Amino acid sequence: MSSKNAQWENWINVVLGIWLFISPWVLASNFSRVSSSTNWNVWIVGIILVASSSAALQQLKAWEEWLSLILGLWLIASPWALGFSDQAALLWNAIIVGLAIVITSGFALPEALQKEQSA
Fold first, then answer.
1. pLDDT tens sequence across 75-112
2. Side-chain-facing half-sphere of 80: CA atoms under 13 Å
3. Of 41, 52, 21, 26, which Cα lies nearest the Cα of 85?
4. CA–CA separation, 75 vs 93, rounded Å?
5. How far apart are CA 49 and CA 66, in angstroms?
6. Cα(50)–Cα(59) distance, rounded to whole angstroms?
């Protein structure tokens, strides 16, 4: 099992991943008008985030935290990369959730690296 300290970060990322998956339905005023690439982006990122964070809850590994960090950075950039920066709710959702993922992963990464070095 991972230590107590890295668990809260990964639980937060699990919740954020679930939120990402449902967010297009909650935030888009007209879900059908949102591009499919926008929807697929948050669905895929959400699924990967839940899977990697759940795995980290079982056994903390640095690659899981690196993956979460990269997913968070991608979320921040995705409104411009995928062309939905004109949709305020989806834009801010991507930026805020992306920043939260980067922060939580940034907290967990040093512990994961230390754990791997001591193993």
1. 999 999 999 898 888 899 999 999 999 999 999 999 99
2. 5
3. 41
4. 9
5. 11
6. 14
